[in-house]
Design a protein that fits this description.
Helix content of chain B: over 70%
Strand content of chain A: under 5%
Low-confidence stretches of chain A: none
Radius of gyration of chain A: 24 Å
Number of strands of chain B: 0
Structural class of chain A: mainly alpha
Shape of chain A: globular
Largest sheet of chain B: none
Distance between the termini of chain B: 34 Å
Mean pLDDT of chain A: 86
Strand order of the largest sheet of chain A: 1-2
Order of helices and strands of chain B: HHHHH
Largest sheet of chain A: 2 strands, antiparallel
Radius of gyration of chain B: 28 Å
Structural class of chain B: mainly alpha
Number of strands of chain A: 2
Oligomer: heterodimer
Chain lengths: ~300, ~150
């Protein structure tokens, strides 16, 4: 444990020392991955798939706030949709504006979650996501996560629509892309189940995480994981949706492990040294519970060679 | 001459101004009520745009039905329904905006107090230096003992 704590503290120290260079590098990697994944899932414009363009955009994003990544990605998604069909492009633009006006004004930083959800799908981490979001972002992550799921299925839907449009002959009735996309999204019960389960798991994980009893964070992660499995099982049976339960089970376990790892980096506490204090002033009585954080002071060995 | 205390204070002030201060300093020019009201009003404008867009999507989606029943549709009932939904939508947004922005203002207040305190301290130090440079005598606060 001491070794792990020392490693964590050294890592934190290293990050705070080189923060000015590490933050842009991490932002660059994040934006590069996001733009690349957008191109892989959509990819109707060759220009947005050009590695040089992605590289330049990522460099720009590396030095600007994270909202810029969300903004550029939104423009890319709208442009890709316009390439498929103009009405779908307008629908996509409307959805982006609705998301901005309806939600992103209140919590602009959580907008990036929308773009992370499709990446989690490709990394098979979808079922781990609600547990991690539950304690890292809390209820503020519910709407962006829901829009993230919509984005993922929207991308799949666009790929289907392109095939339908390509297979159409002059004799066939014209297919409205707008109607096709809305119908496909509204009839997608798997997506609706995922949104509902994710929202519930985020909310419950957050609520338990914030409670003051000992090891509440472990309880929150385990409850979140358990709920994830149970709700997907119930949804599977009730909505007759084809969700792979083994993936849900593995995803939940991975989610719990990842959440524990992130929590360890955020800081773990020593419940054995909990102090309960009580004092008062003119207006209030204070009942304070102080739990010290676990940390070790690294030894700075300084070897001095004397000839 | 570089004075350590001044440098420390100025660095602290600059770090705040470049990070949290960007959003929090403009807040300090408002009273809490005014700040919350202005932002709630902006939220209402944004919510209205979102509502118009959602309505437009629904109308375009149902366009075939509307065109087929253009004379049969009860427009008065639809308008009433829209007005009620819009009212509820705006009320919910207004409520959320009030909670979010008043909480944001309350969270920013301690930081702004510390920032103003640091600024005041820096100003006092620089004033003392000006007095000293003109050959005056600076009386320490500790000297005056009531």
């Amino acid at each position: 444990m001491t070794t792990l704590l020392t490693f964590r503290d050294n890592l934190k120290g290293f990050y705070s020392r080189f923060d000015f260079i590490l933050t842009p590098i991490l932002k660059f990697i994040l934006s590069f991955v996001i733009f690349r994944s957008l191109d892989m899932q959509l990819g109707y414009w060759q220009i947005f798939g050009n590695v040089l363009i992605i590289f330049v955009l990522s460099i720009i994003c590396a030095f600007l706030p994270s909202q810029v990544i969300t903004g550029i990605s939104a423009i890319v998604i709208v442009m890709e949709s316009v390439k498929v069909s103009l009405d779908v492009g307008l629908l996509c633009a409307a959805l982006v504006v609705i998301f901005y006006c309806g939600y992103m004004r209140f919590a602009p930083r959580t907008g990036i979650i929308v773009l992370l959800v499709p990446i989690c799908f490709s990394l098979h981490l979808t079922y781990a996501l609600p547990i991690i979001l539950g304690f890292l972002a809390g209820p503020a992550a519910i709407i962006p996560a829901a829009f993230g799921f919509i984005l993922y299925y929207y991308e799949l839907c666009l790929s289907d629509l392109t095939k339908v449009l390509a297979a159409m002959t002059d004799e066939d009735d014209a297919v409205s892309g707008f109607q096709y996309v809305i119908n496909a999204l509204m009839e997608n019960r798997k997506m609706l189940l995922m949104i509902a389960v994710c929202s519930l798991v985020i909310l419950i994980t957050y609520c338990i995480y914030k409670l003051s009893f000992e090891h509440s964070w472990v309880a929150a992660f385990i409850t979140g994981g358990f709920l994830n499995v149970v709700l997907f099982l119930a949804g599977n049976v009730m909505l007759l949706v084809d969700v792979d339960i083994v993936s849900v089970l593995l995803g939940s376990v991975v989610g719990i492990l990842l959440a524990c790892l992130v929590q360890f980096c955020k800081g773990v506490v020593d419940y054995q040294r909990t102090e309960l204090l009580q004092f008062e002033d003119d207006d209030y009585y204070y009942y304070v519970k102080a739990v010290p954080k676990l940390s070790v002071t690294g030894t700075n060995k300084n070897v001095k060679h004397i000839n | 001459m570089v004075r350590e205390q001044n440098v420390k204070l100025m660095s602290k002030i600059a770090i705040y101004e470049n990070n949290k201060g960007r959003t929090e300093i403009p807040m300090s020019s408002f009273y809490k009520g005014d700040y919350v009201r202005i932002n709630a009003l902006k939220a209402i404008v944004h919510a209205t745009i979102a509502f118009i867009l959602i309505t437009a999507i629904v109308v375009v989606y149902k366009m075939d039905y509307l065109l087929a029943n253009i004379l049969k549709v009860d427009y008065k009932r639809i308008a009433m329904l829209l007005a009620i939904i819009y009212g509820c939508w705006i009320f919910i947004y207004w409520l959320i905006a009030r909670i979010v922005y008043s909480r944001r203002y309350e969270n920013a207040r301690p930081d702004i107090i510390i920032y103003n305190h640091d600024l005041k301290k820096l100003f006092e130090i620089s004033e003392k230096e000006v007095v000293k440079s003109k050959g005056g005598v600076v009386i320490s606060d500790d000297f005056i003992d009531f």
